[in-house]
Amino acid sequence: MPDYPELLTPDSLESPLLPSGDEAHLPKARPTFKQWTSEFEGDTYGNKPIVDMDREPMFAELAILKLLQKDGWDGVWVDTFSRKYRTAWGREGLVRLTGERLGLLKSINQRADSASGCFDVYCWREDGVLFAESKRASKDRIRETQLRWLEAALRVGLEPSSFLVVEWHFSGSSLETNKSVGKQVGRPNPLSQSSVAGRARIVRGLDAEPEEKASPSPPYESLEVFFDAYDIDAHDKFLKWRERNWRGYVISRRSPSDGMLHQVDCGHFEHGDKSVSLTRTMKVCSRDRGDLESWARENMGRGLKRCRSCM
Fold first, then answer.
1. Domain layout of the chain by residue ranges
2. What are the residues facing 221 on neighbouring strands?
């Protein structure tokens, strides 16, 4: 059973419905963070909110990692947006994973058939590993790709208690914790840490307890991501996806803020050199053009360019 920092102590359970139909009950913490209100000149990844952690600006993912580091964990922020592992902001925070730490991620990604969906923060110490997912309260939900990745992680042998959903909010919001009575406004009294962690489990099919309802369906269920940095077989999987979805659309994302929308049969994907991977640059694919355009606005902070050859 993991040991949590005080601010990340679970007080409830998140109960997503997995693709198999099983229901996973994951510990959930609901911390309050202070919002950064001073000027910030760095890359905000499409206007992601900035947390003030000990008078230092950072994304919530890094704030969660910092709390766990202070409590004796080692770990990284799995920064899928820029395709990096980070322990802090800036170049000095970039790290590489090797050995068993990288091996665990690879085994999960292979089982999930994709690296897309990995939880935001990956931590470890002698007594186990912990994957924490950052979700801003009333703003974010667990996505379909994350459910597939979570189920794969459970299938390779991790327990539900090895995961933590961090549903955070800013101080001063309507969800701010009423610390004087030890509970959140409009919610029941928090459970003890041992009680919540002890209830973390998988419920098979129709055996789910009626009071534990599954999370609502996530947005953009149709999206598939193919990228060499995530999966060595991404190129071949992208080709197979194109064959199955000949009326679909593809974003070719060259940087966190630069992406171009193509039709799936665009001639740009039919180059002559078969030794060159088409997924050296990230390919975000869907049969639904609207989902791709919405994804680009939310994750890239801008609209998409359109290919002049096919659009």
1. 6-207, 224-306
2. none
Q: Which of 61, 229, 225, 251 is nearest to 145 (CA)?
A: 225
* pLDDT of residue 278 exceeding 50: yes
Distances (CA, A) of 139 to 41, 48, 294: 24, 11, 15
pLDDT, averaged across the chain = 81
| Chain centre distance of CA 106 | 16
Contact criterion met (CB below 8 Å) for 1 and 194: yes
127 by Cβ neighbours in 10 Å (0-12 / 13-18 / 19+) ranks as exposed
| Both structure tokens of 269 | 């994907």
185 has pLDDT over 70: no
What 3 state SS string does 164-192 have?
A: EEEEEEECCCCCCEECCCCEECCCCCCCC
Distance CA 29, CA 41 (A): 30
pLDDT at 203: 59
Q: pTM of the predicted model, to two decimals?
A: 0.61
How high is the pLDDT of residue 92?
83
